[in-house]
Amino acid sequence: MTVLFGVLSKLSNKAYTPYGIAEDRNLKILHTDNLFVIPLVIRIYLILFFTSDIQIHWFIPFIRNTISQFGNDPWSSFIQSGGSDLAFPYGIGMLGAFLPISFIGLCVDKLFSTNLFILIGFKLSLLVFDYSILLVLALITKKYSNLHLLLVYWCSPLIIYTTYIHGQLDIVPISLLFICLCMIQWKRFGFAGSLLAIAVSTKFSMLIALPLILIFIYKSEKFNANTFTFIKYLMILGAILNWPIVLSSGFVEMVVETKEISKLYTLYLSYGENLKVYIIPIIYTLCLYQVWRLKIVTKDLFIIATGISFFSLLIFIPPQPGWLLWVIPFLSFYQIQSKKDILVLGLLFNIIALFNNFSDLDFNNLLWNSTSNLYNNEIDISTTKNLIFTSQQGLAILLAIRMYLYGIQRNSFYKLSDKPYAIYFEGNDSSRSVECALSIEKLLGKDKIKYEKVSNFSYLINGPYLRYDDENTISQIDHQGNLLFIKEKVKYVLNPRTNIFKIIRDLIGIEKKSRYIILFNDTKSKVLPFSLKKKINTTIVFSSDIKSLASKINNSYNSGINTLWAYLEPININLKESNANYKQRFITILPMGFLHDQLLRLFISVSSIHIDTEILPGNQFLKMTFEGYSTKEDISEIANVLIPQIEDLSIDKAMWSSGYLGIIQIILLSYIAEEMQDNKEIKDLNLELI
Amino acid sequence: MLTKLNNDLNIDYPRAVLFDTDNTLYEYAPANNAAIEAVYLKANNLLGLKRNTFFNLYNKARLQIKKDLNKTASSHSRLLYFQRMIELLGYNAKLLLALDFEQTFWRTFLSNAPLFPNVYKFLNLLKESDIPIGVITDLTAQIQLRKLTYFGLEDTFDAIVTSEEVGADKPDPKNFTLMLSKLKLSSMTNIWMIGDNPTSDILGSKKLGATTFQKIHRGIKIGEGEKSPDVIFSSYKDLETFTRVIISN
């Protein structure tokens, strides 16, 4: 266990919040929970005392043959030795997953002249992958409840039945896929690419996830070195692991020519006598489009969208017993995160799916025959089976819809992905504006930022070149009086400031291009109708909602609340700026109730700088004076604690600034993160650097 | 797990509950290891120090400071350890570097020092029951107050005593008597002392008549003989249940 935790710690050290002591302890607690221990005992009991027909008749002979003829092509040699071509329709990855422990089992068998331990070894391999999914779920959800996690995944009857009783192997590819997702989150792109290549080589169906993963990586990393590392490892290892496609006739017969691929075409709409429209490729394409259109693809959104894609396909494909396993980890992730559908729908889905599986088994024919006797054969068995299958698929549709509604559509990042944040600098100290803007740009990423000069638009508002009339029409005229732009029936003509943003949006459509818009107004003349202090050099205004920003700011100005000022002042007023010992302290004036409590606690404890606080007359503002130097590591650590959603903001943790810029970055990011959580309590903030 | 070792003792409703901090509210060793590792990485980066050299020098500096200052709060000062380590390396007073190492140490330490599970719950139970709670802790006041602030416990305790304030580490009785005077209590009877160290926490408070609870986890040896605690526990959940029963009775 210690070795495992050490490996996790090393692997995660590139992540923003790496696996650490808190996570280590949470996992240890998870392992002592009865809901972990009891299902583990059930699993071990099934491994030791339950035999699955498909494992005994198909998988084990294949594995035994592979070990005994190690070095030969396993598929061809098995068929040549008279084995069934249905025995092991999986690739090298799957074979590799089972060989090590099965080999140990075979050695023990040879020692004691038994045939038992190879089977136990084979099934223990399944347990390893099953357990891996539990670990990964804990690692990627981070703030999970043990009860929820263990209940929805580890106690899932469907997982236990399909893997340990029915004996299906689908837990292996889905486990590898899930570890791959975790590695992407931990920025181990080479490892992630390798794992996906192995997952695909275990079962080609895992290719379904490839486009989704590529979209996710592209959306979060663009075409940078990480993306190429992922692709490089995926392709190289993919090519190595899939050599049997060209070199093994047995592999082609057993794996490639499987009838599973034809299931993609079983559902279609007939267009006349000769043409068909296949439904499943359309559904899959729509799922890809759904992920592609997300402007910000957070880890949560991505995993749930991938789960929905798997769900959508399974709803329309004639099901195989093991395939439902593909969705359980994704469904569990959704259930843990949203805390929804844990008991009623989730459990019901598991039970109905189990019944559906039972109805396919031979021994259950006995059950059906015996019950049918009670009803004098009046019950049509196939109708009953169909009804159970209908219930299963109906519940699957319902869960997929709920995953979409609660996992995606109501996700704050999804909802806000069309609304940019406007960060507004005003004043004549352009160097400080640029310094602040650059620090924000470095943190958030250059591609997410667009700069605009508001001063031109401000000028247009008040000048002769832009006018709006009573019919809500805005027009722009050049110096010669020619009409350059006209926009009719503008909805949101509330006041001059609204117009600035509205016009910027309409004229250049910036909201469609960038996540954050940094607006500069570097004219010395004050064209905007508010000024909170006479000595204003720079103003930063940030809000997620451009439309309501203006009215909020005006309200803020009129009422004198919801405003934050910030400025620097010399510690020793007798020293000149040119003096080597000249130092400044940073002062902010925050609205009461916004952030100051956490800032005070964290800066004092983490950064050990001196902070003085003072409630200003009127009890609406709190003045905070920061004296001392915070390193960027301090700022990063404080942000990590202060902003729980920090991983989803896709920021570059190396780009936190030190000193007062770092404090501004933290205030900005906290505000944005709170806004993304739809916290209505939070106030719009207007930061002025004086 | 909670076990009463002193079966002759009747444990009554506590007049106050006193806590040690390190290894009692959180596990010290992992945090300390992570922190010193972070300083090593920085030292390696800035000074090119190899792992063995760094740890040898750090340990040498630590032992020297502890020997020089005996059992006082400053003898635990990481700033002094790093300053001495830099001096042992042959540098002159590199003040900024020592301060930088110290800040790196404590920043990493705090981020790797999660409270034991259910500590908040247990403290809340005591608060709700109007039982005064205090902290008696070794080390300098500044870092111990930072720790409690980082844990979000800055408004939780009724009194805090640090060995810096007293001039000597526990088990010096002055630590406990100062706490009694801060809580306006006259004796340690029916006062619970919760700590990890058999000498500092258990022996020190037991001599004055406290009921002693030793927090047990990996690396902690249960006190024996005169250092034997009245109760040992490994989980605050169990301690909370135990206390709830006593309070309700």
Overview of the molecule:
The complex is a heterodimer of chains A (690) and B (249). Chain A is α+β, with helices and mostly antiparallel strands. Chain A has a domain at 33-414. In chain A, strands 4-8-3-9-14-10-11-13-12 form a nine-stranded mixed β-sheet, sandwiched between helices. In chain A, a hairpin with a 5-residue loop joins strand 5 and strand 6 (474-477). The longest helix of chain A has 29 residues, at 381-409. Chain B has 249 residues and is of the alpha/beta class. Chain B folds into two domains: 2-27 and 116-248, HAD superfamily/HAD-like (Rossmann fold), CATH 3.40.50.1000; 29-111. Chain B contains ten helices and seven strands. Chain B has helices at residues 28-47, 51-69, 78-88, 95-111, 119-128, 141-150, 163-166, 173-182, 198-206, 236-248; strands spanning 2-4, 16-19, 133-137, 159-162, 191-195, 211-215, 231-233. In chain B, helix 2 packs across helix 3 (78-88). The longest helix of chain B is centred in the N-terminal third of the chain and has 20 residues, at 28-47. The two termini of chain B are 21 Å apart. The model of chain B has no long low-confidence stretch (mean pLDDT 93). The A-B interface holds A 20-22, 24-25, 29, 601-602, 604-608, 631, 633-634, 637, 640-641 and B 27, 30-31, 34, 100, 103-104, 106-107, 110-114, 117, 142, 146-147, 149-150, 152, 154.
